[in-house]
Design goal:
Belongs to the enoyl-CoA hydratase/isomerase family. This is Phenylacetic acid degradation protein PaaN. InterPro entries: Ald_DH/histidinol_DH, Ald_DH_C, Ald_DH_N, Aldehyde_DH_dom, HotDog_dom_sf, MaoC-like_dom, PaaN-DH. The chain is of the alpha/beta class. It has 19 helices and 26 strands. The protein folds into three domains: 216 residues, 3-Layer(aba) Sandwich (Aldehyde Dehydrogenase, Chain A, domain 1); 217 residues, Aldehyde Dehydrogenase, Chain A, domain 2 (3-Layer(aba) Sandwich); 161 residues, Roll (Thiol Ester Dehydrase, Chain A). The N and C termini lie far apart (63 Å). The chain binds NADP nicotinamide-adenine-dinucleotide phosphate.
């Protein structure tokens, strides 16, 4: 196994320049977790943090603001590809942190994976603009001339990350990605123990040449005083211990200055074995596998690791034996550079001492070691896994003391209510796993513990092999957790991008709201082709004849009326097989509270509407790829007529393709002007080709 030569002096990166610690800086040595060699020296002495914050707010904001959400998201994908090609440089130096290759895979490729996910979510779920609409429109005047809605715009400050030591790459990239897509510059402060890996990743990111100036800056070394320069424009995303989180949360700039502060802190996560999951069942096996994986991956230095193993009281001996057997047969503790090693070292001898101290506190509180030893039997920062047994599951320490290493405690529970009560004694956790194949047990446990957790994983025989596991927060889903876990749930999916934006209520006329948001709102000006009786003009080009470059929000088409006869309804019923009584049986239909008698099928009306608004010849409209928000409002009996108005509501050019998406507002009216149905039609339209 090769180890790259490490940069001994870990630089900071501010104002678009690398700043190695100055000659007179007080340097902290970082040691290889296994060999004890000095691998890096760090110091943030003299780093111009105030200048970095100013640079982010001015240059970073300006440069990121030149791009739309989709353009930034696409850059993120290119950055992910660039890092993926150079990931070996990060693997090579990560061994010194004590991480095995599998641990680093979670950190490095997991981190790069977040970039891919956020890139794709940003482009698929957000508009290609700077303003994001939130929620429905509220009509606030009788005539519809005054409406209200909510919009997100990016925060005008800097996203400061303060990270824990355990995942120097993933921990940084999972926060950088949403900030970048939102258009907010990042200032990252990794933990000094592993900050050299984060610094190397930042070096690759800047060398890629993909990132606009000021997108990312780095403070290597200690972060004390970092919050002194922030105000309400900025946000802090902290990951680390509950103790540090509580200190930072009380900073005057957070308490009085409006700095947005989110924290993900330590957590005493539980795994609950369902009463049905007895020895021999796939669920019991999945449970034991999860416990062992969580004790040994990253040497248990994961905020999501299982710390409390809750087992029905009559199964506790059997489960301890199974965990011991699996640990024995699967775990090889040692230098992660050595062949066959499955569990590496803790990050430092100081961290190992902290874990031993925590184990001692658990023993003093009544815990009995049933696997491993309280003694320091390994050299350096290596440590064997430890399982403690508490016969009194109410022992306070087991619910409050986090041993941030390969340590878990097993506790008996009496019944499901007891299991729920014990899980909640963690006072808010990141994640719990429930192993059961009984749907009632799953429902009872999830309802009972849900509000105490950021995430709950239910494992049974169907997903045990395909599950991403207890310890892996996924970029699509929220993580964080309530209470002790930090109180946050801002990361995960598009909500993490919106977390870097301000939500503002926007009130005004439909025309103004359309102009501001780039999304057409009912009541805003339209340019309709089609039937003059219904607002169309014979001089306007049918909107399906316009390329994406020519089409404007508000362009549309007004169709003429078309009458629905009983014959049409019957033909449609027989053709499709939909002979539901509301369409076929006058007496039964009239007895239904919603219908005057036999009425046309809703799908008949939507199909006819397509025939009424279509411009059939080949042209820029390439495909219809769906409908959204379809509502049938007024029934249409035989003898009524319908017409449709189609208006371009949202136009989204795709950055990577020769076409884009057009969402059309569709409204079907009857001959009295009553609204019959409303929906959105989704089409793909060529960027250039018109006809
Ligand atoms: P930590 O001691 O709380 O440090 C976390 C980060 O805060 C480090 O970068 C640290 O660097 C910085 N920091 C400490 N005091 C600061 C201050 N006054 N101003 C600015 N920055 C400050 O935690 P750790 O030992 O690195 O990580 C282990 C803990 O993190 C465990 O308890 C674990 O459960 C938790 N954790 C939680 C999550 C999660 O997502 N919930 C994830 C990973 C880890 P400096 O001290 O050098 O400034």
């Amino acid at each position: 196994m090769t180890t790259a030569p490490l940069p001994l002096l870990v630089p900071s990166y501010v104002h678009d320049e690398w700043w190695p610690p100055s000659d007179d800086a007080e340097l902290a040595d970082v040691l290889d977790a296994c060999t004890g060699e000095v691998v890096a020296r760090t110091s943030s002495d003299g780093v111009d943090v105030a200048g970095a914050v100013d640079f982010a707010r001015t240059v970073g904001q300006r440069e990121l603001g030149r791009l739309t959400i989709h353009e930034r998201a696409l850059l993120l994908k290119q950055l992910a590809q660039y890092l993926m090609e150079r990931k070996d440089e990060l693997y090579a130096i990560s061994y010194a942190t004590g991480a095995t290759k599998a641990d680093s895979w979670v950190d490095i490729e997991g981190g790069i994976g977040v970039l891919f996910t956020m890139s794709s979510k940003g482009r698929r779920e957000l508009p290609n603009s700077q303003v994001v609409l939130d929620g429905p429109t509220e009509v606030m005047s009788k005539d519809g001339s005054f409406i209200g809605t909510h919009v997100y715009t990016r925060l005008p400050g800097v996203a400061v990350q303060i990270n824990a030591f355990n995942f120097p790459v993933w921990g940084m990239l999972e926060k950088f990605a949403p900030a970048f897509v939102a258009g907010v510059p990042t200032l990252v402060k990794p933990a000094p123990q592993t900050g050299y890996v984060a610094a190397e990743c930042v070096r690759l990111m800047t060398e890629s040449g993909l990132l606009p100036t000021g997108s990312i800056q780095l403070v290597s070394g200690h972060g004390h005083g970092l919050l002194d320069h922030l105000d309400y424009r900025d946000l802090v995303a902290f990951t680390g211990s509950a103790r540090t989180a509580n200190t930072l949360r009380q900073h005057p700039n957070v308490v009085h200055g409006g700095v947005r502060f989110a924290s993900e802190a330590d957590s005493l996560n539980a795994a609950i074995l369902g009463p049905d999951a007895v020895a021999g069942t796939p669920e019991r096996d999945a449970f034991v596998r999860s416990v062992v994986t969580e004790m040994t991956t990253k040497a248990g230095q994961k905020c999501t690791s299982i710390r409390r193993v809750l087992v029905p009281e009559n199964q506790i001996d059997e489960v301890i034996a199974a965990i011991a057997e699996r640990l024995e047969s699967r775990t090889v503790v040692g230098d992660p550079r050595d062949e066959g090693v499955t569990m590496g070292a803790l990050v430092s001898v100081e961290q190992k001492q902290a874990v031993h101290d925590a184990v001692q506190r658990l023993i003093d509180a009544g815990g009995e070691i049933v696997i491993g030893s309280a003694q320091d039997e390994r050299s350096g920062a290596l440590m064997d896994p430890v399982l403690l047994r508490f016969d009194d599951a109410d022992t306070e320490a087991v619910h409050t003391v986090e041993a941030f290493g390969p340590v878990a405690s097993i506790l008996p529970y009496r019944d499901l209510d007891d299991a729920i009560r014990l899980a909640a004694k963690g006072l808010g956790s990141l994640v719990a796993t429930v192993c059961t194949n009984d749907p009632e047990v799953a429902a009872t446990l999830v309802q009972g513990i849900g509000a105490h957790h950021g995430r709950v994983l239910v494992l049974n025989r169907d997903d045990a092999r395909t599950s991403t596991g207890h310890g892996s927060p996924m970029p699509q889903l929220i993580h964080g957790g309530p209470g002790r876990a930090g109180g946050s749930e801002e990361l995960g999916g598009v909500r993490s991008i919106k977390h870097h934006m301000q939500r503002t209520a926007l009130q005004g006329s439909p025309g103004m709201v359309t102009a501001v948001t780039g999304v057409w709102h009912t009541g805003a000006p339209q340019r309709l082709a089609g039937d003059p009786e219904f607002g169309g003009s014979p001089h306007e080009l049918h909107p399906f004849r316009k390329s994406l470059a020519e089409l404007r929000i508000g362009d549309g088409y007004a169709s003429p009326l078309r009458m629905v006869t009983l014959g049409d309804i019957e033909a449609f019923a027989h053709e499709t097989g939909d002979t539901f009584y509301a369409h076929m049986d006058e007496e039964a239909a009239a007895a239904n509270p919603f219908f005057p008698g036999r009425v046309a099928h809703g799908y008949l009306l939507v199909s006819w509407a397509a025939g009424l608004f279509v411009s059939p010849d080949p042209g820029p409209v390439l495909a219809n790829y769906g409908l959204e928000n379809l509502r049938f409002i007024t029934p249409v009996p035989a003898g009524d007529s319908i017409r449709v108005t189609l208006t371009a509501k949202r136009i989204t050019p795709r950055v990577t393709d020769e076409y884009g998406e057009v969402c059309w507002d569709a409204v079907i009216h009857n001959q009295h002007g009553e609204v019959v149905a409303t929906y959105d039609v989704l089409t793909l339209v060529d960027k250039e080709q018109s006809s």
